[in-house]
């Protein structure tokens, strides 16, 4: 009996639900730290917003797993032939949860997310229309990402990952301040590209499974060279955005210099993935790049507030 089979047999149901909700991947939730640094307060609205975003994202990733199990792509990408991926991360593939249990979990989380975000809006000192509409749009899209309209199967996967991250910074900032800020928008885009960069490296590894089920990621739609060029452009675009913001006065003049360490690490990630051929190691490095970006963005806000 293999070690993996033994692990599957001993996996608790509670642990399996944690895996289904991807609670160990907390990187989207770090956006609230950027907002707190920008508004200089922690309020009930922000706590409710954070709890709501956790519930919404948990629902979205659970529904994604259900769809990946139904169409067979997860069976390919997490099957016995791919030793770089751990089957236990996909409870339906591992057999530690049933499809009915996963579906029930997803809709409970979705309901909780709707209630918590509604409470966040109701308790907010401001309710700018753009922030409320953005929240409603992203909530609906998160639940339609892999089921229903299947946005990720219609070419919207990469765009959604960025918009979700942007919303988790822009919307709570708007609810607290009632304002729209160009500098916060730049930070929101930089924050949103972090999860995108996890996704595009995963898609590079999962290209055969995605092509088999007709999931049109950029990696699945283009050649290996075209996909590398796309990811290279995204990598360079992060720093280009920061530099442009500094040059135009949207951000302080020193902002581009502040994020240089993250840009250097992003270049290292690209080299690791496409020059060294270590795609999954490059994906893991992406988490470090994203978390470093969050630290630098929090620092930038603290510096602005302090004058």
CATH architecture of the largest domain: Up-down Bundle
Structural class by secondary-structure content: mainly alpha
Rg, nearest Å: 20 Å
Task: Note the total helix count.
Answer: 16
**Helix-strand sequence:** HHHHHHHHHHHHHHHH
Explain the layout of strands and helices:
Elements: H1 3-10, H2 13-20, H3 31-39, H4 44-71, H5 73-77, H6 91-94, H7 99-123, H8 129-143, H9 157-177, H10 182-205, H11 207-213, H12 218-221, H13 224-248, H14 255-258, H15 260-275, H16 279-306
Describe the protein in words.
This protein has 307 residues and is an all-alpha fold. The protein has two domains: 125 residues, no CATH class; 127 residues, Four Helix Bundle (Hemerythrin (Met), subunit A), CATH 1.20.120. Helix content is 75%, strand content 0%. The chain has 16 helices and no strands. It is globular, with a radius of gyration of 20 Å.
Give the gist of this structure.
The protein is built from 16 helices and no strands. The protein has 307 residues and is mainly α.
List keywords for this structure.
single chain, mainly alpha, Four Helix Bundle (Hemerythrin (Met), subunit A), UbiA family prenyltransferase, UBIAD1, transmembrane helix, UbiA_prenyltransferase, transmembrane
């Amino acid at each position: 009996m293999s070690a993996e089979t033994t692990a599957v047999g001993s996996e608790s149901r509670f642990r399996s639900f944690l895996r289904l909700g991807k609670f160990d991947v907390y990187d989207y939730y770090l956006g609230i730290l950027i907002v707190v640094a920008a508004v200089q307060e922690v309020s009930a609205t922000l706590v409710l917003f954070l709890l709501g975003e956790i519930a919404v994202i948990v629902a979205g990733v659970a529904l994604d797993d259900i769809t990946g199990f139904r169409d067979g792509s997860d069976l390919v990408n997490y099957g016995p032939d791919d030793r770089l991926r751990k089957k236990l991360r996909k409870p339906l593939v591992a057999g530690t949860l049933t499809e009915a249990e996963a579906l029930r979990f997803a809709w409970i989380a979705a309901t909780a997310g709707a209630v918590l975000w509604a409470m966040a809006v109701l308790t907010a000192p401001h309710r700018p229309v753009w922030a409320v509409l953005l929240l409603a749009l992203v909530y609906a899209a998160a639940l339609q990402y892999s089921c229903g309209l299947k946005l990720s199967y219609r070419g919207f996967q990469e765009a959604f990952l960025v918009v979700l991250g942007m919303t988790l910074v822009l919307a709570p900032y708007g609810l607290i301040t009632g304002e729209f800020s160009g500098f916060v928008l730049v930070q929101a885009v930089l924050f949103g590209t972090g999860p995108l960069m996890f996704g595009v490296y995963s898609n590079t590894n999962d290209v055969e499974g995605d092509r088999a089920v007709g999931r049109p990621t950029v990696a699945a739609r283009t050649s290996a060279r075209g996909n590398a060029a796309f990811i290279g452009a995204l990598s360079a675009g992060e720093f280009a955005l920061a530099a442009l913001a500094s040059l135009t006065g949207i951000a302080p003049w020193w902002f581009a210099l502040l994020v240089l360490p993250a840009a250097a690490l992003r270049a290292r990630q690209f080299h690791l993935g496409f020059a060294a051929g270590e795609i999954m190691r490059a994906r893991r490095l992406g988490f470090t790049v994203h978390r470093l970006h969050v630290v630098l963005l929090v620092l930038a806000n603290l510096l602005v507030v302090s004058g």
